[in-house]
Amino acid sequence: DAGVIQSPRHEVTEMGQEVTLRCKPISGHNSLFWYRQTMMRGLELLIYFNNNVPIDDSGMPEDRFSAKMPNASFSTLKIQPSEPRDSAVYFCASSFRRSEAFFGQGTRLTVV
Amino acid sequence: AQRVTQPEKLLSVFKGAPVELKCNYSYSGSPELFWYVQYSRQRLQLLLRHISRESIKGFTADLNKGETSFHLKKPFAQEEDSAMYYCALWGNDKIIFGKGTRLHILP
Question: Residue A106: its pLDDT value, please?
Answer without folding.
Answer: 96
